[in-house]
Amino acid sequence: MDQAHIRNFCIIAHVDHGKSTLADRLLELTQTVSDREMQAQLLDSMELERERGVTIKASAVRMSYCAKDGQTYIINLIDTPGHVDFTYEVSRALQACEGAILVVDASQGIEAQTLTNVYLAIEQDLEVLPVLNKIDLPAARPDDVAKELEDLLGAQDSILRISAKNGIGVQDVMELVVQRVPPPKGKTDAPLRALVFDSHYDSYKGVVAYVRIVDGRATKRDMMRLMASDARFEPVEIGVFTPSMTPIDELCAGEVGYIATGLKTIRECRVGDTITLAINGASEPLPGYAQAKPMVFAGIYPTDNADYHNLRDALEKLQLNDASLVFEPETSQALNFGFRVGFLGLFHMEIIQERLEREYDLDILATAPSVEYRVVKRDGQQITIDSPAQLPPENEIAEIHEPWMKIQIYTPQSYIGAIMDLVINKRGEYINTDYLDANRVILTYRLPLSELIIDFYDKLKSITQGYASLDYQFDSYREGDLVKLDILVNNEPVDALALIVHKDDAYHKGQKLVSRLKDLIPRQMFVVPIQAAVGKRVISRANVSAMRKDVLAKCYGGDITRKKKLLEKQKKGKKRMKMIGQVEVPQEAFMALLSLDEE
Questions:
Q1: What is the CA radius of gyration of the chain?
Q2: Residue of 38, 59, 300, 441 with fewest CB within 10 Å of its CB?
C-alpha cells in the first residue's frame, strides 16, 4: 500500500466525552462492521468498559474510506484508554499515530484528562484536530467551549461541531482526518522497526503484539526479536484488525496491525518495546520505552483460605493481559495467606478487584492501599517498602521518604475555597492558579500520594457537586515525619490494620480507628481491649465489653457465700479464656481504614 494513502490517528478525550461513540459511528460510516454485527461501544470488548463508559484497554481497527476526492484511503484508528492511571499506554498509542482527534463535550468543556492528553499529543508532534461533541444536548455551550479550545490550541480555522450519538457531522471528521493528518514517512527498505503499543494473551497464539510498523516490513517467515527484553520468536501469524483479527502476508512501513509472537508471558513483550529482525535488525530502538511502575500497593486475600490457589491462578491470568500488574505472596497473622499486589493507581486497583470477583467468581478482601516508601536506616542502608508490616523498628530508622504528586484540579470558581480546605487538610502545598475563562480555574498543588489514594477523589467530587476533575503526575520523593501506627486487638498486633501516617495525624487517626473497631469487633465472653500504639507508646484505647452469662439464675434464695463462690469461679474461667481466646477480626474492620477521614 502506498504510504501517501495511509492515515494513522487516535481519539483522545476525557472519560465520558463520547470517544467510543464516535469510534462506533466511524466504523458504521466506512462499513467496516455490518449492521448485524454492530453494537454500542464495539471496541470496548470488556463488560466493565461498557458498564463504566471508560476504555480500559487500547484497541485498533483498520478502515477503508473513499474520500470526496475519489481516492480510497486506509485509515487506522487506535482507541486509547481514557483514565489518568494509563497515561503511559496513551503516550505509546500516540507515538503510533500522526494525528489525534480531540473530542470535547460541548456541555462540560475542557476537563483534566483532556489537557493532559493534548500535552502528550503535542509532545509527540501530532496534528491535533479539535472536535466538539454532543452539540444537540440542551445544556450544550458550543460557542463558549470552542473559545476555550481556541485559547488552548491557538487560533483554529474551524472547530468541527458534531453529535456522535446521532451521526451529525461524522463524515466531516473523516474528511478532516484525510486532509489534515499527514501520511506516515517510514522507510520500506530500512531494517524492520515496529512499535508495540499494546498486547494481549491468546491461549493458541501466545502474546499478540499490537504494532505500528515504523520502518521496513514484517513477514511470517522472518525470525524476530524484541529489543528491550531480547526475546526471539518466529511469528505465528501477522495480520490487521478489521476489527476482528484478520491474517495477511506482510505489514509494511506506515501500517498498523498485529504480530502473534507465540511467547508465553507478556513480560517478554512489553508496551513501548521495539520489534526488529533477529538477523540484520535495527541498531537503535524507537525512543520512549519505560517499564510501567506500580504506584499503589494493597494486600489481596481470599475470604476462604481454600481459594488461595484459585486467587493465584486468577492473578496470573490477569497478568498475562496486563504487564503493569505485579504481585508476590504475603502472609498476615489476621488474614492468613494472600498476595501483595502493585497497581498503576486507584482506578487500576478497582478494576482488578472487580475482575477478580466477576470473571473468576472469587470472594476477596483488600487491605487499605499503601504506597512505596524509601527508608534510610541509621547504619546508612536504604530499603524500599510497600507495606507497613515491612517497616523496621523505630530505633533503626534515620529517615522515611514518601512519594509526592503534582495535581491539577479543574473546577468552577465558586468551589475554590472548599477545595483549598480539602487540600490543606491532606498536607497539600499550593503552587498556582490559572484561569481558563471567567468561570473555570486550574488549581495546581503538590500532595503526598498516601493522602491522594484513600478518599481524596471522592471528597473532591462531593464538595464540588461532581463539577471538578483531577489529574496527577509523580513529582518527587520527600522526607517526611512519618510513624507506624499499630493496632492491637486483645494485646496482639494485627499487621493488616497497621498504617504509616504523619506524626501529627497519628493521635486522631488512632483514636478514630479504635472507636470504629470498638463497634465492629464482636463481643466475646471476656473483655477485649483495642489499642492504637506508635512504637511502644499506646496513644488510644477502648474496651469491647464482655458478654455476661448469668450464672446466678439458678441460685434463688440461699446463702450469699454460695453466690460469691460461683461468681469467683466464673471470674477465673474468664481470665483463663482471655489468655487462650482468639478474637476474629471481621472484614468490616479492614474497610474502616478506607473511611477514616469521614466525619
A1: 29
A2: 38
| CATH of the structural domain 193-277, one choice from 2.40.30.10, 3.40.50.12780, 3.40.50.300, 3.40.50.2000 | 2.40.30.10
Say how many Å lie between the first and final Cα of the chain, rounded: 64
CA angle 391, 395, 396 (to 5 degrees): 60
Report phi then psi at 323, rounded to 5. -70, -20
**190 Cβ neighbours under 8 A, 6+ residues apart:** 215, 216, 253, 282
Q: Where are the domains of the chain?
A: 3-180, 193-277, 296-367, 374-480, 484-595
Cell readout for 83 is 483514565
Q: Which triple of cell numbers denotes residue 598?
A: 469521614
Torsion of CA 389, 390, 393, 396, to 10 degrees: -160
CA distance 258 to 209: 5
Written as nine digits, the cell of 377 is: 536506616
Lowest pLDDT segment from 14-23, 76-85, 128-137, 205-214: 76-85
Residues contacting 328, CB < 8 A, separation 6+? 339, 340
Stated as kind and residue range, the H or E segment containing 177 is helix 170-180
Going 15 to 184 to 272 to 406, the CA torsion angle's sign is: negative
3-state DSSP assignment of residue 147:
helix
Model pTM score? 0.71
Task: Indicate the burial class of 54 (C-beta count within 10 angstroms; 0-12, 13-18, 19 or more).
Answer: buried
Please check whether the two domains, 374-480 and 484-595, share a CATH topology.
Answer: yes
